[in-house]
Design a protein that fits this description.
Blueprint lengths: L7 E2 L5 E3 L3 E6 L5 H14 L3 E9 L11 E9 L5 E7 L7 E7 L9 E7 L13 H34 L1
Antiparallel strand pairs: 1-2, 2-3, 3-7, 4-5, 5-6, 7-8
Length: 167
C-alpha cells in the first residue's frame, strides 16, 4: 500500500511523483541540491526509502562549483516487497540516466519496479536531464510497450515449440 500526501509533479526536478508513478533519474550533472531534493521529496510524498545512497564527485577546478558525479550507488526499498540496488560509474561522455521507477498502476503488462539505466544516451545535455522528466517517463512507456511485444513473441514462440513437439 502506498500513501501520498499529495500529487507532486515537479518542474526542473530529477524526480516525478503522481498517484501511480514514482520516477527518479540521476545523471553525471545532477547537483547535490537536486540529490537532496530527491531524498526530501521521497520522504515527504511517498513510502519509498533509500537504504544506501552514496555519490563520489570528481574534484572541481572552481571553488563554488561542484564536479560531475563519477560514481553513484543506491539501494531502494519501496516498502511493499520491491527492493533494488544499482552502482554506476559515469565515464567521460557518459550521458546515461540512472535511477528507478515504481509503477503502482494495475496494468499487467508493465513492470512494476525497475532500477538501473533509464536512458542510455540522453542527447539534450545542454538542458539538464532534470528539466525534462517527460523524457524519462516516455522512455519507461516505450520500454513497457517493447516488453509487452517481447512477451507476446515469447508466448508465441513457446506455443510454437510446444505445438511442434506434441503435434
Amino acid at each position: 500500500m502506498i500513501a501520498y500526501s499529495q500529487v507532486e509533479k515537479l518542474q526542473n526536478s530529477p524526480i516525478f511523483i503522481n498517484d501511480t508513478l514514482v520516477v527518479v533519474g540521476i545523471n553525471s550533472k545532477t547537483t547535490d541540491k537536486e540529490l537532496l531534493e530527491i531524498r526530501t521529496k521521497l520522504l515527504k510524498f511517498s513510502t519509498i526509502r533509500f537504504i544506501e545512497f552514496d555519490v563520489i564527485r570528481e574534484p572541481s577546478s572552481k571553488k563554488n562549483e561542484e564536479g560531475d558525479i563519477q560514481f553513484i550507488s543506491l539501494e531502494v526499498d519501496c516498502r511493499d516487497g520491491y527492493i533494488g540496488k544499482i552502482s554506476h560509474s559515469f565515464e567521460k561522455g557518459d550521458n546515461s540516466i540512472q535511477g528507478f521507477y515504481r509503477d503502482y498502476s494495475k496494468n499487467n503488462y508493465r513492470r512494476a519496479f525497475f532500477i538501473g539505466t533509464l536512458a542510455e544516451n540522453y542527447q539534450n545535455m545542454e538542458t539538464k536531464q532534470t528539466e525534462d522528466v517527460d523524457f524519462i517517463i516516455d522512455t519507461i512507456e516505450n520500454r513497457s510497450l517493447i516488453e509487452k511485444d517481447i512477451e507476446k513473441k515469447e508466448k508465441k514462440s513457446i506455443f510454437h515449440k510446444i505445438k511442434n513437439i506434441f503435434f
